[in-house]
């Protein structure tokens, strides 16, 4: 289904204010960790003229004031950094593990996806049924179980404020891959949990969207008013390198969490964890089970 | 205080934009036509990045509850004070109880209304700009509504003389056909050579789907190079592994209709981007409306940087005119 693409870094101008760097055409952990290392190094240099540093899935993007820092000068700096990256696989990443409760097959995304069947590859199935079938799962329940079993690494934040693109920590054969809608929807409910390409996402706010819809997250991921404790420092919760475990919950638990959110008492369950890219890439599933043990305080 | 008697079609508080949060997925928002925006501020003695009102197509009706100076710049949406027409691109003195309103749009799309002292709304992440999708910034995170009361701040300088006349070259004219300069790149390798050429040959028509988020164009379908899609990209030939979208970047979902992403756009996604509008021509986009015709012109990075310098030169001339007239008067 997917081609093996040679990793060849491309440096491109995005108008006069952006430099876009593609490390790989296909999604790989290697490209993501490499981009993370390069953008971290660039940030450390504190260079004048840089407005934004945006790490992505298998690429990254820098916004500059071109009259202060010429994009060509930036490109040569980036090439130098890339050439100097000999030990990025061994560099320690301080990450946050987060338990993210999801109500799968919820009434709200169901209503939305039924409204847009004509925009879909398969108007006669639901998004979950279709995704399970094309990924060779026996049933939609099995697909949900697969999402539940292995956590996801946040590889990019964007699209709209706080939306985490997350990539499952499992072997490529077990990874779910689905197309986006043939024509994007004009409506997606707030906190919808979706899947597109190899990425799981949560839509922070209501809006347009093209990902397959599977469920709804119980807790917010963007808090503009910054009322919840977890959002005191930033209205956006997730960051690149966070590891999210999408935990399938019941309607009862969903309602309990909604009440906690409304009362301002909700906090995400989180744990700290340090690792190196090598730990992850060597054996993603072994790493995933380590994550699960740490997140749920299981010492086995 | 300014009393919003009629909000107009889409009137928002905007300043220079919320820059520095793109990696959070936060677009900059801010005034679309920055040239008109800055000149409006200069004319009333504001800091050039002070917050103003940006009105689209249909201007608002505003009542002032104290004496102040205002200036209207941008598209030709003729302003009136107590029903009397007055000129754009010059400061106007208003008395307590005066009412600002507008006639129908003659050319362009957006006007900028600067008030001495700037529109005073809370600063959110370094900016007063409105980002309506998430309800961030501006007046309660939304477009103005009837009955809203806007506060104004303290002006940093005295306003320009009401006698001032900016020279012709400093006042942009907006027609119905536009040339928009772009730098080719990003994922343009995904288009066939023939389609790349076609992209520049076609005179595109702006669809009704044209707002602060982006503009969609109608023309002819374009084709992508056939390939086995890389892992993570999704199955359509216009799909790529989700990546960051520069402000002003152009994508063509399924090769059907190009979309140019603007101030309130999404910051990333899974469609191949093929070119980016140069920063100076993003200002021009703010004055383009549905059914206008657009031709994209390929330029080099150095030409784009040169265009920035040219525009700064124009702004210097505006500042000079203001200074000369105030000394002379």
What shape does the CA trace of chain A take? globular
CATH superfamily of the largest domain in chain A: Cyclophilin-like
**Helix-strand category of chain B:** alpha+beta
Give the SSE order of chain A as H and E letters: EEHEEHEHHHEEEEEEEEHEHH
Number of E strands of chain A? 14
What is the helical fraction of chain A, as a range of percent? Answer: 25-40%
The number of helical elements of chain A comes to 8
Summarize the structure.
The complex is a heterodimer of chains A (300) and B (329). Chain A is 29% helix and 27% strand. Chain A is built from eight helices and 14 strands.
Question: How would you describe the overall organization of this protein?
Answer:
The complex is a heterodimer of chains A (300) and B (329). Chain A is an alpha+beta fold and 300 residues long. In chain A, strand 1 and strand 2 form a beta hairpin. Chain A has a 7-stranded mixed barrel with strand order 5-12-9-10-7-6-13, surrounded by 4 helices. A 4-stranded antiparallel β-sheet of chain A has the order 1-2-4-3, covered by helices on one side. In chain A, strands 8-11 form a two-stranded antiparallel sheet. Chain A has 2 domains: 3-88, 2-Layer Sandwich (Gyrase A, domain 2); 94-299, Cyclophilin. Chain A has 8 helices and 14 strands. With 329 residues, chain B is α+β, with helices and mostly antiparallel strands. Chain B has 2 domains: 2-166 and 313-324, no CATH class; 177-298, Cyclophilin-like (Cyclophilin). Chain B has 4 helices and 21 strands. Chain B has helices spanning 34-43, 193-201, 279-285, 301-328; strands spanning 2-6, 11-14, 52-56, 61-64, 68-76, 79-81, 84-85, 91-94, 99-102, 107-115, 119-120, 149-152, 177-184, 204-210, 214-218, 239-244, 249-251, 259-261, 268-271, 273-277, 293-298. Chain B has a 7-stranded antiparallel β-sheet, with no helix packed on it. In chain B, strands 13-20-17-18-15-14-21 form a 7-stranded mixed beta barrel. Chain B has a 5-stranded antiparallel β-sheet with strand order 2-3-10-5-8. In chain B, helix 1 (34-43) packs parallel to helix 4 (301-328). The two termini of chain B are 29 Å apart. At the A-B interface, strand 1, strand 2, strand 3 and strand 4 of A face strand 16, strand 19, strand 20 and helix 4 of B.
């Amino acid at each position: 289904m997917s081609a093996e693409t040679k990793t060849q870094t491309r440096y491109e101008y995005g108008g006069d204010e952006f430099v876009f760097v593609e490390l790989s055409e296909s999604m790989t952990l290697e490209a993501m960790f490499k981009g993370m290392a390069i953008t971290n190094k660039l940030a450390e240099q504190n260079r004048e003229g840089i407005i934004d540093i945006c790490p992505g899935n298998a690429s990254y993007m820098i916004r500059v004031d071109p009259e202060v820092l010429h994009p060509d000068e930036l490109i040569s700096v980036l090439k130098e950094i890339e050439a100097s990256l000999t030990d990025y696989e061994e560099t320690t990443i301080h990450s946050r593990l987060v338990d993210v409760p999801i109500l799968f097959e919820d009434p709200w995304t169901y209503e939305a996806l039924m409204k847009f069947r004509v925009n879909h590859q398969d108007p006669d199935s639901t998004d979950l049924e279709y995704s399970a079938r094309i990924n060779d799962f026996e049933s939609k329940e099995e697909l949900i179980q697969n999402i539940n079993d292995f956590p996801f690494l946040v590889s990019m934040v964007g699209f709209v404020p706080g939306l985490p693109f997350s990539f499952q920590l499992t072997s490529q054969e077990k990874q779910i891959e689905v197309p986006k809608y043939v024509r994007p929807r004009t409506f997606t409910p707030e906190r919808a949990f979706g899947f597109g390409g190899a990425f799981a996402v949560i839509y922070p706010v209501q809006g347009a969207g093209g990902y397959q819809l599977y469920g709804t997250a119980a807790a917010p991921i963007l808090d503009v008013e910054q009322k919840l404790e977890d959002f005191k420092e930033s209205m956006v919760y997730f960051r690149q390198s966070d590891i999210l475990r999408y935990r399938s919950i019941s309607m009862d638990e969903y309602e309990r969490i909604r009440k906690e959110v409304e009362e301002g008492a909700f906090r995400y369950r989180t744990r700290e964890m340090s690792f190196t890219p090598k730990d992850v890439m060597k054996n993603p599933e072994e790493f995933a089970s380590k994550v699960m043990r740490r997140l749920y305080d299981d010492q086995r | 205080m300014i009393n919003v008697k009629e909000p107009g079609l889409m009137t928002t508080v905007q300043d220079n934009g919320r820059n520095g949060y793109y990696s959070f997925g936060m677009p900059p928002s801010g005034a679309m036509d920055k040239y008109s925006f800055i000149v409006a501020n200069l004319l009333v003695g504001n800091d050039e990045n002070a917050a103003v009102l940006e009105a689209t197509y249909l201007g608002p009706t505003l009542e002032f509850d104290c004496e102040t100076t205002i200036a209207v710049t941008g598209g030709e949406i003729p302003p009136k004070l107590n029903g009397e027409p007055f000129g754009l691109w010059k400061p106007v003195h208003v008395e307590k109880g005066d009412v600002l309103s507008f006639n129908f749009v003659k050319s362009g799309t957006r006007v900028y209304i600067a008030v001495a002292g700037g529109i005073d709304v809370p600063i959110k992440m370094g900016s007063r700009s409105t980002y309506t999708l998430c309800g961030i910034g501006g007046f309660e995170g939304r477009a103005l509504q009837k009955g809203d009361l806007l506060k104004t701040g303290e002006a940093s300088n005295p306003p320009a003389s009401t006698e001032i006349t900016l020279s012709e070259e400093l006042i942009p004219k907006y027609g119905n056909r536009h040339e928009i300069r772009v730098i080719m790149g990003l994922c343009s390798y995904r288009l066939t050579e023939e389609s790349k050429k076609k992209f520049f040959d076609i005179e595109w028509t702006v669809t009704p789907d044209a707002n602060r988020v982006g503009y969609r164009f109608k023309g002819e379908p374009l084709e992508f190079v056939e390939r086995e899609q890389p892992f993570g990209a999704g199955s359509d030939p216009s799909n790529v592994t989700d990546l960051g979208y520069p402000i002003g970047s152009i994508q063509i979902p399924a090769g059907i209709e190009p979309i140019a992403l603007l101030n309130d756009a999404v910051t990333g996604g899974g469609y191949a981007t093929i070119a980016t509008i140069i920063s100076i021509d993003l200002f021009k986009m703010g004055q383009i409306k549905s059914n206008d015709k657009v031709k994209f012109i390929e330029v080099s990075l150095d030409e784009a940087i040169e265009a920035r310098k040219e525009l700064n030169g124009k702004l210097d001339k505006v500042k000079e005119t203001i200074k000369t007239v105030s000394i002379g008067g």
